[in-house]
Design goal:
Radius of gyration: 17 Å
Number of strands: 9
Number of domains: 1
CATH topology: Immunoglobulin-like
Shape: elongated
Structural class: mainly beta
Order of helices and strands: EEEEEEEEE
Distance between the termini: 47 Å
Oligomer: single chain
CATH architecture: Sandwich
CATH class: Mainly Beta
CATH superfamily: Immunoglobulins
Strand content: over 45%
Number of helices: 0
Length: 125
């Protein structure tokens, strides 16, 4: 008798490069059962904004609802393109197997650069 299960979420999601219009991410595949291998990944991203609270120096992070999704990614790295320059984004990754989708990975944040700037090599954006 074969027991099927949803996959585990990817681990160690990292931002590896940032330009004005793209963010590159990589991750580690979670351990998986041979009977239900990972078929693909879904990369989710959304812009976030920071606003200064009135009469304070505190920042409040507003999250735009709803992630955009890039499905059927077959490698453990991806370049998210078509982004707005100098914008903060939240990114996360989901594993997909024959049973369904995992919970999302831990989110990572990165800010796209100003036009004409490239940041590489595992940045802590």
């Amino acid at each position: 008798m074969r027991i099927s299960a949803l996959p585990s979420a990817p681990t160690s999601v990292l931002v590896t490069a940032v330009t004005a219009n793209s963010i590159s991410v990589s991750w580690n595949a979670a351990p998986t059962d041979v009977s239900d291998p990972i078929m693909s990944y879904t990369v989710q991203y959304r812009p976030k904004t920071l606003t200064v609270l009135p009469d304070t120096r505190d920042f409040h992070q507003d999250v735009t609802p709803g992630f955009r999704e890039i499905r059927d990614v077959t490698d453990t790295e991806y370049d998210v393109t078509g982004l707005e320059a100098f914008t903060l984004y939240e990114l996360r990754v989901i594993s997909v197997n024959s049973v369904g989708r995992s919970e999302p990975s831990q989110s990572v944040d990165a800010t796209t650069s100003q036009l004409g700037t490239v940041i590489t090599d595992h940045c802590t954006c």
